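Subject: for your reference before the review

Hello V.,

The reviewers asked for a structural picture of the protein, and I figured it would be easier to keep everything in one thread rather than splitting it across files. Below is the amino acid sequence we used in the manuscript, unchanged from the supplementary table.
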Amino acid sequence: MRIVLDPEAVDDLSNIYSWISKDSPRAADAVVTRICDKIERLLAPELMYMGRRGREPGTRELIEAPYIIVYEIDEARDLVIVLSIVHGARDRDNT
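And here is what came back from the structure prediction:
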């Protein structure tokens, strides 16, 4: 199993870092590291499905407060695909 980040998820991580680093680059590093560490846990077969069922069919959502990591599992291709990383307070119905 391996992890792949969708280009949208890469942009999300970059935007999270940019936003937080305006006030504190150290805090931005810490937040992005926490998110990446949480994503890496999905490599363990027993933890792959630890996220709750997602809003979209076939997706799962893993919380790394205050962010939501949206991902899907493609067992046929042996992939965990991170689709996006959104702030929990964001209105996801209008995005």
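For the response letter, the relevant points are probably these. The first strand starts at residue 2 and ends at 5. The CA atoms of residues 2 and 46 lie 14 Å apart.

Happy to draft the paragraph if you're swamped.

O.
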